[in-house]
Amino acid sequence: xxxxxxxxxxxxxxxxxxxxxxxxxxxxxxxxxxxxxxxxxxxxxxxxxxxxxxxxxxxxxxxxxxxxxxxxxxxxxxxxxxxxxxxxxxxxxxxxxxxxxxxxxxxxxxxxxxxxxxxxxxxxxxxxxxxxxxxxxxxxxxxxxxxxxxxxxxxxxxxxxxxxxxxxxxxxxxxxxxxxxxxxxxxxxxxxxxxxxxxxxxxxxxxxxxxxxx
Amino acid sequence: xxxxxxxxxxxxxxxxxxxxxxxxxxxxxxxxxxxxxxxxxxxxxxxxxxxxxxxxxxxxxxxxxxxxxxxxxxxxxxxxxxxxxxxxxxxxxxxxxxxxxxxxxxxxxxxxxxxxxxxxxxxxxxxxxxxxxxxxxxxxxxxxxxxxxxxxxxxxxxxxxxxxxxxxxxxxxxxxxxxxxxxxxxxxxxxxxxxxxxxxxxxxxxxxxxxxxxxxxxxxxxxxxxxxxxxxxxxxxxxxxxxxxxxxx
Lengths: 214, 249
Known about the structure:
The complex is a heterodimer.
Chain A: H1 6-13, H2 29-34, H3 39-62, H4 72-94, H5 96-102, H6 104-108, H7 113-121, H8 128-158, H9 190-207
Chain B: H1 8-52, H2 69-79, E1 80-87, E2 90-93, H3 102-108, E3 118-125, E4 128-138, E5 143-150, E6 156-163, H4 177-180, E7 199-201, E8 216-218, H5 224-239, H6 242-248
Parallel strand pairs in B: 7-8
Antiparallel strand pairs in B: 1-2, 1-3, 3-4, 4-5, 5-6
Helix pairs in contact in B: 1-2
């Protein structure tokens, strides 16, 4: 790693696995349940959060010495809200059908606890470059789980990926459906996302015993 | 840092400056992107109107597919030959009728002296004139709206519904083809020529929707209130056009 020092690359890589915001810190669960019924919105949500969190972290970090501590939470909220409105407006102007599909979820980024959490815990006390890396890392760790959950939920729940019928046509009974396979309707519902996240946590902790708390 | 960030005066000044900066950034962005957003909204409306008329990119039993945004403007001007604004039984041609905001008209119409302006789009399909009427109503959580294409005798040729925030999987299904396709061929008037609307009914004796003159389509299970909303908006908004359609025949 010539570009990043060892400490810096840890900022990016840690949240991807051993300090993942969803599976270890259990933050940002609400949106992980809501939008992962399909793969496409999961990916768009992941990209949007990467943008909002990395830029937001840098903005907060640049302002860290001048933010009055009494109103710092409000200042953080304003920064997130501004960035989210920018994402929303840009999507409305350049990707209208996508913005209709995501509708309320883009607005919900504001309430994503990961964002406020990183602002408060990291950006307020660190330099812009480190904050940027931390933002990328945490948002990517969040996005990674979103995409894994979205992949399984769309595949098992609707038999499609990105809307393509990869398992055959459930109405016409082709492909896997011809031999009696059925979609699991339960996968499309939010509770199943929680169970999938639970399974990921299980797999992760059984591979790395150090993560298990007493 | 020499500034004392704990002082009250500093906190207040910081808050004011921050609000001003953020406010002007967002205002600038919103007005800069407005033309693009407005164009997208206009295309969407044109796509919806054309969809109700049966001009769309549906293939077989696929999901709802509109004609693409780069072709919609041209297709719209070619297909919709006339646009009217109806006041009472009097129709005046107005090429900007599709910009009429039904929601605002609805509010204005609460004044009994106000004659409501009703937009109507006329096009030609298979040699016969076809009319598209915009409708708007309430679902379970939020607004629902749509476009209904009818012929001269008020027989439905096609519909398009949309919603602001109905429950996914239940009320939100009104914009799925299996629900919208059922409306095609239904009669809005009964045999005696009286306006009956379309009843979105459960316990329908005709779930395959073979009887087209029964003024009813099969409801979506679990979406009773949204379905009732569809019934109500068809009843309320299409009724206002009946006097005009009587003059056509």
